[in-house]
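User: Need the bound-state model for protoporphyrin IX containing FE:
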Amino acid sequence: MSRTARQLVAGFAILVGVLVLGTGIASAHATVESSSPTDGESLAACLSCEVSVTFNEAVSTLSGGLSVLNADGNHVDTGTSHVTNSRTVVTNIDGTLADGTYVATYRVLSADGHPVSGSFLFGVGSGSLDRSALPGASGDRLWNIIGGISRSIMYLAALLAAGVAFFLAFIHDHSADRWRIVPVVRIGSIVALLSAIGIVMSQAALLTGKGASAVTDTNVLRDVLNQNLGWSLALLMIGLAGVHLSTDITNKIASQSLALYGGLAVTVSFAVWGHATELSPRVVSLIADAIHATAAALWLGGLVGLVMVLTLRNADSVRSTAGIIGRFSRMAFWSVIALAVAGLTLTITGSNASLHSLVTTTWGQLVLAKIGLTLLVVLIAAWNRRTLVPALTTPPQADADDAAEHAVRWATLLRTVRAEALILVVIVGLTALLVNTPPARTAAVTTTARVAITKRVDTGSVELTVDPAIVGRNTVEARYTDGTGQPLNVANSMTIEFSQPAAGLEPITRQVPSTGPGNFVIEGNELSIPGTWTVTIAVRTGDFTEQRTSFEVPVHR
Ligand code: HEM
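Assistant: Bound-state model below.
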């Protein structure tokens, strides 16, 4: 292994190890908003009662779900759980619960593909709760770490395979030293493939809590792959096969096509699974993500290719190398612009353009660190481009001084390009953490922005929740209850009107069918600007009567 490769691998391993073990991988993206019973609550009695957990965003149960065990570890639920209102997981108790301590454990999949799990206790009767009944989370922590490390390795290996294949096909001069660079593509694609297996294993283990044995369960595997992750991995495999083959084929056009389209499949596969699929506006986020990852592959692969060329050749091969340096320099320039524009777009959609959330959330701080490091690389690259590249792309004069100066420039270019590549590798390591951290938009909102307002109406009360109550996609839910807190079947459908008179907006009216007794949920982008919105809900209670209730809802940027 060359010195550069050793440095890249060692730097990356240390970074990922320190970050993953030091900070832990935050797998939770949907967070628990409430549960029934609440954690630590003691119920007087439970006769076929319902246990539920409500999250701050949409979840699905797949192979997981919600289960309730008694202190001896035996199931007391009916064995099935389901999701209502897209955010609440519900299970029913089988018969009557004896006095004692019970553990409710949930395992769900967030809308962005991250498994979320946890447990809470409740009691029946007047005895004290037995806290030792709570299961430990060490198994999940291990699988979170395995998943995080696998994703880091997958990113680095796949970006290198795609980027170096492009370098060989379009930037390199096809001379004999290409065969010394080809192994990066081949090893990169195989390593990316193996790390993808690690990602699937960790998803299966986290979703079921059954550890490695979950991977041998075909139902679990089907659940794990039968979602965006499956599509993403399928594209990744096709792309990796393409870039691998591009290094075997002697026909130039065929080899270039495989490198180009294979590489694109690899980078687009990143966008198919992850935060971009849930950020708003979704199409903008998906396109920005694909462009960002493609530009990252071109830049990183190009730099690593160039480091290898400069290492394999010496300062005398300037004439043959000048073309490579020139082509790389032009490609890197446009890649950096595309990467920065797309990266900033993702930053805006991920944080809802809130500087505050960028500074206060882990996701935001990781993005700011990426921006700082990228600026550092850009500064080094700009200096190279202005000073070293023009001099290195013109052959030295015959005199010895000029040749010596040329050799110094060559060595300086090699050193600085190596430093640029190393910093990019560090950025890829940070990215693996970033994609495992709840985006600023969700993280900041969980603590600050969700709005819940309850009003009295003739028949009882109605609670309106707007989540996350920030500009963009929101879930608006109305729950009608009677005087004792039981759901009240008011009507089959509800009319909801969104208006912001201060901004001169025309009211937007929607018809919402009921999702259960007294329950109405609508998801959409109606709350499109910040400010105080008037949300009016109306249900028809008779042939000629309608019950209208208005709420003032603050919506943040
Ligand atoms: C201006 C500098 C940059 C900014 C603002 C930026 C921002 C972002 C953001 C916001 C995301 C989305 C994270 C998420 O899904 O939660 C992202 C993803 C990513 N970034 Fe960057 N980034 C920058 C530079 C770089 C560089 C230099 C590289 C590597 C050479 C890189 C590689 C990636 C990769 C591979 C992804 C993951 C794409 C995916 O899985 O969907 N970024 N970046």
